[in-house]
Amino acid sequence: MNNLNTPLIDTQITDEATQWAIMHGVAIKNADGTARHCPFSIAPMTMKRRVYEHLLKVTPILTKLISNVSEDHAFLSSSLSNMSKADPFFGRLLWMHEQIHGTQDAPKTAKRQPLLLMRTDYMDDRQQGAKVIEFNGIAAGMGPFGQRANELHDFMRRQWPKTYQDWIESPTAMPAQNQCLEQLAHAITTAGQKVRDEFGEEGKPTFLMVVQKDEDNVYDQHLLEVALQARGIRTVRRTFHQLSTQLSSGENKRLMLENVGALDVVYLRAGYQFLDYFAPELMEPNCCATLSQIRVFIEQHNVAVNATVSQQLATSKTMQMLLTMMETQSLTQWGLTEEEAVLVNSVLADMLPISQKRIEWFENDAIKQDWVLKNQGEGGGHCVFGEDISVTLQSLKPEDYDAWALMQRLYPHERERPTVAVRNGEQTQVDDLVSEIGLFTAFFNGKPVTELDGYAGYLVRSKPAKENEGGIHSGKGILDSITLVD
């Protein structure tokens, strides 16, 4: 990445593009209450149409698989037991899962209706083709930003066609449509209306978004809320701490919120880390028990929920590894046809559990640059690369092994032409941009619930190839979009 003193393109263009971004909510909140635009590329990436269409076909099948696995409560408990002992946070999740669903000997029936809004992240590897990086089943955000990135690039194409053509990878490429905002709103509305109809109540559903205190990614969240409000839905926002004193039970297990009334959909943008449940002012003898219990309480009511505790467990790195290691035929036990199971296997990258023998193999025989070491954490900062893997593996105690996994490292295609990244209003030329593609899907009670057979839209985050962290907030990532070539 090379910073240049002279502008790469007319600053009038980037000034107007950053103003467009702010005006359309493509922004991050600063600590002082002001906002800055999300970093973005000046022109979209290019992807082969056949690769894109393959991902559109396979991703809803992956979601069907995860949806069915998440409702196989005995399998979740048994297969994740060892990992939950190695990772305290997942130990807490499995404890919550048992409270909601009971044990194999004494099962309970949970009232909640599962709404799986999932983002499956891929990289298109140079040799292996497109492979899954991870499943995101909780707080799977930035779908609205994905759609806005498409619209920003369309704005660039119409307003400054020459500049757009100068920096686009292929002048004949066609934009891939992205209706993520509309499709997610459609899915949530459909689920909420079904719950409301079951209670025989008139009017539009009420939607609760569970958020983190002092969240900086509020604009992505608000874009979804605005799309829901346009459909007549009332939206409310609360933290777990606020909910600890505001939730109650109504008749027939109706979930009630103080000063609001009945809730039809609960959507968690928090809850994927211990910090979200940490409340020192409660002076708990057992950390995080009170706020984590809120999720148990919610799931004991007849309300559409994303993410359920079981969905969060089913999208863990360990579950991803277990599914990857299974024979194709084994995947059919969760409602997949053999053809669908083959499609799923086509996008799963190799993953390996950690053991003393595996560590010895890694030290003596493995090509270290071909692997990534991952723990169970969500978001950036949870991956270890190259020689650092050896250091981390040597530091692990045997009781820690089950919290970690080795995964085949993916080396995606670098963009064939340089592009311009715009961050904090400044232009930077990037010569080696690579992209991570997240496809959104929505299933309700195990069935696709978008107008596109479960597919909802996509998010592209691009970064310089030499950078390991590609997050928009914490890494070197920039928002991007897709154009297709034959």
Would you write up a description of this structure?
This protein is α+β, with helices and mostly antiparallel strands and 486 residues long. It has one domain (11-349, 410-485). 36% of the residues lie in helices and 24% in strands. The strands form six sheets. Strands 5, 6, 8, 9, 13, 14, 21, 22, 23 and 24 form a ten-stranded mixed β-sheet that branches. A four-stranded antiparallel β-sheet has the order 15-18-16-17, with helices on both faces. The longest helix is centred in the first third of the chain and has 22 residues, at 49-70. The model has no long low-confidence stretch (mean pLDDT 94).
| Helix percent band | 25-40%
Overall radius of gyration: 22 Å
Counting structural domains, the number is 1
Number of strands: 25
Pathway: Sulfur metabolism; glutathione biosynthesis; glutathione from L-cysteine and L-glutamate: step 2/2
Family: Belongs to the eukaryotic GSH synthase family.
EC number: 6.3.2.3
Keywords: ATP-binding, Glutathione biosynthesis, Ligase, Magnesium, Metal-binding, Nucleotide-binding
Write a concise synopsis of the structure shown.
With 486 residues, this protein is of the alpha+beta class. The chain has 16 helices and 25 strands.
Please render the helix and strand layout as text:
Elements: H1 11-23, E1 27-29, E2 35-37, E3 40-41, E4 45-48, H2 49-70, H3 73-79, H4 81-86, H5 88-101, E5 113-125, E6 129-136, H6 143-159, H7 161-167, E7 174-175, H8 180-198, E8 206-210, H9 218-229, E9 234-238, H10 240-246, E10 247-249, E11 255-257, E12 261-262, E13 265-268, H11 289-299, E14 304-306, H12 309-314, H13 317-325, H14 338-345, E15 351-353, H15 356-364, E16 371-374, E17 383-385, H16 387-395, E18 405-408, E19 419-423, E20 426-430, E21 433-444, E22 447-448, E23 455-464, E24 478-480, E25 482-485
Parallel strand pairs: 4-25, 5-14, 8-9, 8-13, 13-14
Antiparallel strand pairs: 1-2, 3-19, 5-6, 5-21, 7-25, 10-11, 11-12, 15-18, 16-17, 16-18, 19-20, 21-22, 21-23, 23-24
Helix pairs in contact: 2-14, 5-11, 6-7, 8-9, 10-11
